[in-house]
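Bug #77: duplicate submission created two jobs. Keeping one. Sequence:
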Amino acid sequence: MTATAPGHVPVVVIGAGPTGLTAAALLARHGVSALVLERHRTPYPLPRAVHLDDEVHRILQAVGIHEAFSDITRPARGMRLLDGSHRVLAEFLRDSPYGWHGFPQANMFDQPELERLLRDALTKHASITLRGGIEVAAVTPPPHDGVPVEVSFRDEGTGVSHRLLADAVLGCDGAGSLVRACIGSRMQDLAPPQQWLVVDIRCRVLLPAWDGVHQICDPGRAATYMRVGEDRYRWEFRLRTGEQPEELTDRGRLLELIAPWTPGIAEDELHVLRTACYTFRAQVADRWRKGRVFLLGDAAHLTPPFIGQGMGAGMRDAHNLAWKLARVLTGRASEALLDTYQAERRRHARQLIRTAVGVGVVMTSGGTGTALARNAALPALSRLPGASGLVLSAVSPPLRSGPLVGFRRLGHPRPGTLCPQPLIPDADGTPRPLDDLLGENFALLATAPLSPALHALVRAMDARVLNLHDPRQQAGPGGTGHVAHPGIDALVRWMGCAGAVLLRPDRVVLATAARPRPGRACGDDLAVAAAAWAPIVCSGAGTTGSSAAVPTHLGDGG
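Kept job's structure:
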């Protein structure tokens, strides 16, 4: 059928996977309407990704589903490295249930359940519309990277073709991205691809295997095993050169492969949910943006699974871009703010991909000699003090490129890094996660009174101020008299020599101010340095707002 006359929407999100749903939900929380177009009518029913770290769990907090997600996830205990005979070479255990961001460091889950939570979150926002059964035909940016962007699509149910004009388009449409092709972007290989067989099994009987991730460090048959849920398990087996997936998916051969983990389990208890052959790729797009058209998630990068960061990288893209796009579309920031998306995220994604490739090489590659050397070195590594924390810690590197991470001071906190999220008492003394107190825009953490220049800056940025000091509770001459709170003390320790730390809406450190001498206010140095980036983030309507001090029992010590 012929196309209808074009309508207009602020943002079109193409693809309703975790990245697209997260982007739409975050845009809604920043006050921007969006239309999400998805090829499938219902969520893909089979599990794919199974792991998120605490940093990405924190993004789900920004979406508003972190508590519901905690109900469907289970923390991973740690990791064992084993040889081809399943002898333990090294074991790394998590000794703390919570990480830097206030959540378990490794969260195992069922992807369809996560997508259901994300879709439910969208229904709470009247500004978001999700349409399934849609085949997008083309995305056409106007000449000279201007606006609006034209999106052509067909409703598979009615057969009617449509055209829309959008102020921005987010391409969250996966590895075979149409949006990527439409903006002339190409994938660049960072390592050769590998073929792996992925097997998901449900078993109501608890498997007699150690309850953590198993990595088989055998170049002959590298494999990974993990318990995903109460009755769900996953295996991944690397295919040998010339081997075909069907050689391994016959039920007898499949049961033989998983036999080391299933002794004593009756065959009829092992229900195969899915077997799929995946090509694990290490790729990043050479261009993530053309005008107001952006690439996110698998459309922009593909990560091997060795560090469990594939899905999380896409959700980080959404978290990075949503607040920037919202500020530009609502007239509170310069168009130049959108230039920082690729500058920050592409380098970050490349580092994660290279880390995943390196870990895979260390754990699974090489011949007999390499395997023998690895088998000798790993036990010694596991006995080093702090080895478990190093191996199992979050692998997300700091942001390094762009004007929003460029103002650096000696010491910590370092611009481009994420701030921690301890529990902080609210006005009633109830401990709450830091992000819940800070809201969804810029925020300033302060351990000293603010200078007039810094006051003016936070007003211009509509930044919320959290005061971590109270003159009435400062230590006396004898060093006593301060009423401590673990969360506040943790933040003050993290701030180090800084008297104030300015946080972006995605809780990345933007800039710091030096701690002033006693009796002086802090922030003049930060306000002076802000001349380099303030015009990017707080132009237009944003310069007329006012700061809002968080009402805590620590006082409003401005």
